[in-house]
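Let's study my pick:
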Amino acid sequence: MGLAQRCGTLLKRIPPSNRFASASPRISATHRRSYSVGNGASGTEPQSSLAREQDHKVRPYFAQKQDNVDELHKQLSALVGGSEPWKLTADGKGLEKSFRFASANVAIKFMNIVFLECDGQRHHPEWANSYSKVFVRWTTHRWVVKGDPGLSIKDLRMARFCDEIAVSVGRRKLTQDEREGFDTLGKKLLERVESGIDDRGATA
């Protein structure tokens, strides 16, 4: 069975209610709520253990105006809560998370499946791979929304899709220390890529 067939088989396992094809709706940047960050912090949403090294509240910054802000906050709260949460980026404009798999082959399989969905949705992540580890960051860029960048509904849905695929291919659970270490590694890898792009642009 080829890669495309295997990916298609795994995609069929995702419940139809969790698949999506609608365009990214408009989200309000003015209806923002503080989300708990760290242990014991309080906010207007249910507590969530985002990053132990952060002890401040992060306000999600949404890319565009939209009416169903409450539903978006509900989806976001579910993603940043739980035992293996996504984290808001420091500026609140993105979601990021590290995944660990049994081998490099499984990590690449995860990325291939996610990429197929990304390509269909015309929405792609910033991500990095180091052997069996994958660091993923979702954000909606300025040239996509033609306005202020930030979080969009596609970021939330693709983050949930990543979680579902990670479980289906057999992710490994991470301790808090492992998660923080992998997050740091992933950010450094992305910084190297971005630095290389900036350098080439400066010399072009």
In short: Helices lie at 3-12, 69-80, 104-121, 142-145, 153-169, 176-203. The longest strand covers residues 94-101. The two ends are 44 Å apart (CA to CA). The first helix runs from residue 3 to 12.
